[in-house]
Amino acid sequence: MNKIALPGPIWLASDLHLGPATPATSEAFLAFLEAAQQEAAALLLPGDIFDAWIGDDVIRAAPPWLATVLTALRDTSARIPVWLGRGNRDFLIGEELATAVGAKLLPEPALLQTDAGPVLLTHGDEFCTDDAAYQQFRKMVRNPQWQAEFLAKTIPERLAMAQQARGESQAANQTKSMEIMDVNGAAIEAIFRDSGVPVLVHGHTHRPARHVLDVDGKKRERWVLPDWDCDHVSPPRGGWLIIDSDGLTFYDLETES
Fold it and tell me: What is the similarity comment for this entry (predicted)?
């Protein structure tokens, strides 16, 4: 398993879903980056940073909203280490983007050696095993051959495909129970057993919480990162997790802003 040693305060945020339709969320994220530059020893963004990502080549002629985000990420990585993860919406994030903003790509999963002890970090969609249709889709789009064929298409073609897939996903989700779209308990227990790590952090489900579990008589903790939305809900939603020598602590976007 890929180990990353990260001493000092580590800030983690996921499911930002940044895009042209989320200007207020982007502004909140920019403020978050400025704060991280001053207070964090490292910043980790484990997936769904973007609402959609059709390939790293989009940065070569980035639209204004994206250019602003890329500049802010580059400024942040000049101050502290920045790690980018892949989610279910931005699984095509690659080395070109990471290099352009001075960041590194997070392995899946990542074993963090922190001041609070070992922490396993991942996006989290792999644990939603009750959603068979989604897992089939996930397997398809994570296939290198599928990705190569998709990236060989023009940007307009990729945009159209992404929009179609997003629409189909939203329609399908209307008929799925909330339980199906949440993590599977057995999958969570399995990752704790396989890794031996006492703490798991993930996003994806948009159900921020700290869950204390008993796995084979051992205490285990599962921390779920919140999603961000400052454009379509009131009050704004979002937050991040800090890991330091005091342990793990949630910070709410509305409270801290």
Answer: Belongs to the LpxH family.
48 is in an annotated binding site: yes
Task: Specify the DSSP class assigned to residue 108.
Answer: S
Say if residue 88 carries a ligand binding annotation: yes
17 is known to lie in a ligand binding site: yes
In tens, the pLDDT along 183-202 reads 999 999 999 999 999 999 99
Confirm whether residue 211 is marked as ligand binding: no
Q: Is 2 annotated as a binding residue?
A: no
| Residue 168 within a domain | no
| Residue 45 scores a pLDDT above 90 | yes
232 is in an annotated binding site: no
Determine, yes or no, domain membership for 33: yes
**What 3-state class would DSSP assign to 235?**
coil
| 173 belongs to an annotated ligand binding site | yes
- Mean pLDDT, range 136-146, rounded to an integer: 95
